[in-house]
TrEMBL record:
Domain of life: Bacteria
Organism: Cereibacter sphaeroides (Rhodobacter sphaeroides)
Record Pfam families: Peptidase_M78
Domain named IrrE N-terminal-like: residues: 58-158
The protein, known as: ImmA/IrrE family metallo-endopeptidase
Amino acid sequence: MRGTRLSGDTPAEALLRSLGITSPDEIDLEAIAWSIGAKVREMELPSCEARIIGCQDQAIITVRNSGDPRRRRFSIGHELGHWIHHRGRSSICRSSDIGNPEAASQLEKQADRFAADLLMPRYLFVPSVAQLKRPDFESIDELATTFTTSRLATALRCVDIGTWPVVLICHGPSGRRWFKRAANIPDDWFPREDLDPSSPSFPVLFGTVERTRIQSVAASLWFDRRDASRYRITEQSLKARGGTMLTLLTLTDPKMLTQGNR
């Protein structure tokens, strides 16, 4: 039985419902692509991650046949986003264009949002998050296994959904590269540019530690607000691609979510 589109559904979620998809293991991207006139093929692509070429109501999506299969799935979803939203334009996407929070192009960001909605639709993702004990990378990895998505894409989706009061931060050796926070966190909880040497995460970025356990720390290690030392948060970090580090901060004190609470 095919599902009925709900008023809050995004285009990707509406597409999934129209196909009667009710569990993550039913999200067959090749079949979904075929249903909207796109054929998926894999081949060697030395200069890009994925591309789509379309004519009228038919398209061919080509994705690189090497690398992480979960990233390949996101690349297919990304190109389908171009097909739905940017039909009539050719698209050749480099690795840095797909699933990259630093990407500047609004077209690429829109394609990424479509991919996230397609691979991790809210009507399936939110109930899965609700079953987890706490916000940490172990929970994120569990979700990534369930939805066959990468750790980064899953972590970003957790922030987008807004169930957890979390901030996801990426650091490189020269400092903070990007961050994303849940919508319920006030803007004045703005992460510091630098990484405090006393943070338990410091050996992850500059040493050999692969992953820290989740632990309580002073909020002032991560935020510049003058009253930050009054609060405790939890932090957990792990090594990521390209010599970077991902950190998940959870604002555990409800007072931190109140605007103007200084």
